Amino acid sequence: MNDIPVNSAFSERIYQILSLPSPLQKLEDALFVANGLKVFVKRDDLIHPEISGNKWRKLKYNLNDAKNQGAEQIITFGGAYSNHIYATAAAGKYFGFKTVGIIRGDELNEKSSETLRFASECGMKLHFVTRTEYRDMRENPQNQLSIIHELTGLDINNSKVIPEGGTNHLALAGVGEMFEEIIYQLGSAPDYIFCPVGTAGTISGIIANSDKKTKVIGVCVLKNGQYLFNEIDTLLKNTSVSNAGRILNPANINFEVLWNEHHGGYAKKTLELIEFISKFNAEHDFSIEPIYSGKMFFAFYKYFSSLIEANSKVVLIHTGGLRNLF
Ligand SMILES: Cc1ncc(COP(=O)(O)O)c(C=O)c1O
Q: Which atom of ligand 1 is nearest to the CA of 218?
């Protein structure tokens, strides 16, 4: 456990609303048996239908921080299809925060996507801004609230800003709890963990809370995502201490990211990917989707025999996002 104090009313509400810990499910496949692999899926997609997967993990300590500061309003950022906007709007409804979404694209409105429609129904106030305004607000952590106020006219009293994708040092603590659940459920740390990489908050949280024994393998879902390497570095430096209180030492960090498994770029699909997902979903009792988990599972099946040592325990993180399937 980390030592961040959790607001007690907030904690009680978490267990009323969310299904935690999420199950760790064995993935059966004759291919794995031949290699002596034990493969499991961490079913974070089951945490909640609207605040699913890594969204909850990254929001938890941000919302807790807001409660502890007495903030009543959460302001955050995203695009018209953002899972983070969707989950933050739902979390606001369940945990009693007003929410504001600053949306990239002043040509949009609340009917432009299912995400925006849902967010607005949850009570999220949406502000549509130009790409330049969006960048100015998002990339200026100093004076961020006053810049937001200047550009949108929003009332910023009692507000907390959560960054795009929910990724910051507080997100890493929530992801660390997922790793602790895995160790408890497996009885030991896994030899490998696979996860998708978008803004790199999830992989950074896993790296920050695992040690050298576990190799963390990220699958980047964006084209030319190599800049995220610096993002991981910055997040780890700003965190410096893991959930377990271990001082992060670069010598203990054991990870790699597969940068070329994006199938053309963010939200792009190849025929190979679509066929893989359709077959996988037909043969299993749970589903993967094409934007994050599908690309990660695809890369795992493609590379496991060359990347993974025989007789290892492997955990694949299902980060949710299943509404993208439909
Ligand atoms: C469903 C889903 N899976 C995975 C990711 C990637 O996680 P991260 O942005 O922390 O790298 C995201 C985006 O945050 C997501 O929405």
A: 11
Q: Global pTM?
A: 0.95
Could you read off the pLDDT of 241-269 as tens digits, one per residue? 777 666 677 777 899 999 999 999 999 99
Q: What is the pLDDT of residue 238?
A: 82
Pocket of ligand 1 (CB under 6 A): 53-54, 83-84, 165, 167, 196-203, 292, 319-321
- How many angstroms is it from 257 CA to the middle of ligand 1? 14
Candidates 3.30.160.100, 3.40.50.1100, 3.40.50.720, 3.40.50.800; CATH matching 8-53+168-325: 3.40.50.1100
Radius of gyration of the chain (CA): 19
Whole-angstrom CA distances from 94 to 17, 18, 123, 193, 259 are 8, 10, 11, 31, 36
Atom 13 in ligand 1: residue holding the nearest Cα: 198
Judge whether residue 326 has pLDDT over 70. Answer: no
State in Å: Cα 37 to ligand 1 middle: 26
- For domain 72-157, give the fold: Rossmann fold (3.40.50)
